[in-house]
Amino acid sequence: MAIRPLVILPDPLLKQASEPVRPDEPGLKDLARDMLDTMYDAPGIGLAAVQIGVMKRVVVIDVSKPRAEDDKLTEAEKDPIVLLNPEIVWQSEEMRVHEEGCLSIPDFYEEVERPDRIRVRFQDLEGQAQEIEADGLLATCIQHEIDHLNGVLFIDHISRLKRERVTKKFAKAARRDTAA
Description:
This protein is of the alpha+beta class. The chain has one domain (12-179): Alpha-Beta Complex (Peptide Deformylase). The chain is built from three helices and seven strands; from the N terminus they run αβββββββαα. The strands form two sheets. Strands 1-2-3-6-7 form a five-stranded antiparallel sheet. It is globular.
């Protein structure tokens, strides 16, 4: 399909909540394919529709294999998950710290504490209700992407000082790009 441009901090779209999607909406499967192509090209392990400028509650994830920036997955290695209207219906009391990054905040990583295990309810591309339990990296990724759907960035989970520092850096870069 198509690789779409990523929405980068400080774009205000990233702080807005996304709208629910109907599984029978025209173009939804094309959107999911474009999101997967964009995520794999970046490369990333998760992408919310807002990160390509589409304000719909759609998430794609593939944590099947850790990869370096220049390491592309073969078709046989890919194991994508598409979640429509995902919502966390349970989370463990046990917490886990994981270093997170974000395709919308390139080259910035920070440790974030989140629930270690979650249960998420969503619809698949056929409109079927699904529920999965996740732990470890998959749980972290799902929580990170659902945050995007709610206008929350992973930097909202770190200290105010670090968050302000990275936000100022990206705002300055955006002003420089606009002036050029």
